[in-house]
Amino acid sequence: MFHLGWFLNFVADEWNGNWGDGGRDFTGNFYVEMAKDLERAKFDYVLIEDKLMVSTAYGGTMEHDLKHGVNPKHDPVPLAVLMANATTRLGVVPTMSTSFYPPFLLARLCSTIDHIARGRFGWNVVTSGEDRAAQNFGLDKLYEHDERYVRASEYLELVSKLWESWEPDAIERDYMTGTYANYKKVHTIDFEGKYYKSRGPLNTAPSPQYRPTIAQAGASPPGRELAAQHADTIVAPANGVEAMKAYRDDIHARMKANGRDPSHCKLLYLVTPIVADTHEEALAKRERWFNDPLYIEYMLAEISSITEIDFAQFDLDEPVPSDVSTNGERGALESFLARGKGKTLREIVTGSGLSGNVPFIGTPAEVADEMGAVMDEVGGDGYLITSPVMRLNRRYVTEITDGLIPELQKRGLVRSEYTTTMLRDHLREF
């Protein structure tokens, strides 16, 4: 069996097609309904991506970012609370940046929401990768890539100590002595590192999971090391079976070197299945979506935003120069370019967009068979599904939850029922 998650953005659902609400609903209702659908389909969790800026990376202007709705988005944390309140088993994993959240504030927030979610809260750890985000927080530019991960490692050490500042049985509720919490079991942490300092203790009661489930998406060497030290689940690139196996082997080796059990971290590969009643219909859908000029411009604006590289400078019908580099998300750049060996920029974008190099296209039964075969070859641990089109809509969610998932369940490839209640336990179930 393998695990399933969903990767999404908190924006209005499809505003320029036939299956959305016209982009008017920012209440989160669509995503709350979606959370219920994902729980019915027995997903492990939903991960909510985030950015903290409007990008000018593509063409040096905000025009394309705003035109296509790439980065205008709402804070994922309140949405995670809404989703958790509407479900009983689905994990909720919003993104928060170590570069901009004060550690004590984030540790307290995570602990509080894990209570609200009854042990189903996760934190997607990012360092952010955009100078425009840094400028929204009083900095001229972002810290250098590798330094961000050094800072993040210290950050995670600090918040972990804050979560552990209460012993698990510190709350006694002793009516005879009138004691709520035993002060001998609550400790200052007196943390002082190179970048952060905090006295502690955390002033929230220990949460159901004690520490939230940690998700991480770093594909660069420093990102992999951070994940190997702390992550319970990883957003992994799907750049072909051999690359997927190599990535998993590398993470497992790093985990062992850090004294961790590799089975305690599940790698979920980012994919975008396209299903239809017939194979031909699925291929036609793919061609219709991916060869739309608006789609191409959207995807170029998005990869520019993610990597801080202006892809408007490159000829669509020529290969991308091999010497491009970034202080932004290096793993995302590497994953994007990995699909383009010998291909033009147009072919990279219209081939598979940003979501992977393992195409799952066909009927639900065909795609289920392919997903099972790839996972067998890779060795685990699951898939993180995201929409292949510009904006998520109800139709795509239904095609996955009511079309693809039942086929996976028939084959015994994914769970048909939950046997655990908390998120970390979902991930460690198999």
Automatic annotation (TrEMBL):
Entries under InterPro entries matching the protein: Diverse_substr_monoxygenases (IPR051260), Luciferase-like_dom (IPR011251), Luciferase-like_sf (IPR036661), NTA_MOA (IPR016215)
Keywords on record: Flavoprotein, FMN, Monooxygenase, Oxidoreductase
A Pfam family this chain is assigned to: Bac_luciferase
Any one Gene Ontology molecular-function term assigned to this protein's record: oxidoreductase activity, acting on paired donors, with incorporation or reduction of molecular oxygen
Domain Luciferase-like: 6-380
Residues binding FMN: D50, T95, H145, Y149, S220
Family: Belongs to the NtaA/SnaA/DszA monooxygenase family.
Protein name per the record: FMN-dependent oxidoreductase (Nitrilotriacetate monooxygenase family)
Natural source organism: Mycolicibacterium moriokaense
